[in-house]
Amino acid sequence: GKELKTLIRMGEGHNLEFKEGYSASIAREICAFANANGGRILLGVDDKGGVKGITVDNTLKSRIHDLVRNFEPKLRITLIEGEGVLVVDVPEGAEKPYSVSGKFYMRHGPNSQQLKRDEIRGFFRKEGLVLFDEMPSRRFDISRDFSEVAYEGFLRLARISPVLERRGVLENLGLIEGGMLRNAGALLFCKKATSASQSATIMCALFMGREKARILDSKEFSADLHSNYDGAFKYLQSKLNTEYIIKGGPREEKLELPEGALREALLNAIAHRNYFSNANIQVYIFSDRVEIVNPGGLVPGMKLSDLGKKSMPRNPLLFGLMQRMELVEQ
Which residue numbers in the chain have pLDDT < 50? Predict the structure, then answer.
C-alpha cells in the first residue's frame, strides 16, 4: 500500500507507466522496459495518477502472461496486486534486444518508440550492449560523494515530494543497482563531476576575434549536472553582448544570440554526449559565433537525414530524468 502510493506520487517517467485499463498495447511498454533498465506498469491508474481501479482476476493475469509469451527471446515478468491496481514489474532484460511480434521498442523518457531491428542491433552493438548512464558507477561512493543540495534541487524541479524516503525514490527512478548508484544518478547527484565521470565537466572559453589564437578568459564547471549547465549558461550570458530595448515602458535586455537556442544547445550537449569519451563538453565564444562541442558522433541507428525528425537519446535513463526536471521536452 505505502510503496504503491509512493510510486503513484512519483508520476510517469522513464521507468514508470500508468494505464487506466488493460489493452494488448502494454506489450510494447513491457518490451521497451526490458530493452532499457526495467520498469513498472500500473494498471488501474490514469495519466494524472488517479486510481480508477481495475478488476484483478486470473483472466487478466493470463492475458498479460500470454502477451509476454510472444517475446523473443523469452522474458519473465512479475505481477503484483495492489488496492484496485495491478503492477506489472518488468526486469531489465539479460538478453537484449527484445522484440514482440517482430517489433522492437525502446524507452525514451515517458514514451515507448518502435525501432527497426537493424537500428536497435546497431544501437546495442556500438554501445557494447552497455549504456553508460545505466551502468552502476564504480567511481561513486554514496556516503562520500552524494550531494544533498543537488538531490533537493532535483526533487524540486521534478516535483517529487521531499518527504519521500531517499532510497525509495532512487530505486523507483531506476537509479540503484546492487546497492550502487547508476551513472545517471552519479551525474545528477555528485558533489564533484569527476566522481561520476572523469570527463563530466564543462569547459568554457572566450577568445579574441574569430580564431583560437588568443584566449581572453576561461572557466571549468565541475559540480553536478544541473549546476554545470546553469554555470555554463551564466558564463555565456556574461560574455555575450546585451542589447537594451526601450519601447516606452521598462527596458528589456536581449542577448545577441537567442537565449532559448543557447539553452537547448547546452542541454543537448549534456543529454546526448558520449560519456565513455575522455573529452569534456567545450563552449567556445568567438567575436562572431559560439561553438558548443560535445564528444560522440550521431547516435547509432541515426543518419544525418533523421535530424529533426527522430529522437534517439544516447543516454535514455539520463534523458528521462532531465525530462522529469523539465530541462528537455519529450
Answer: none
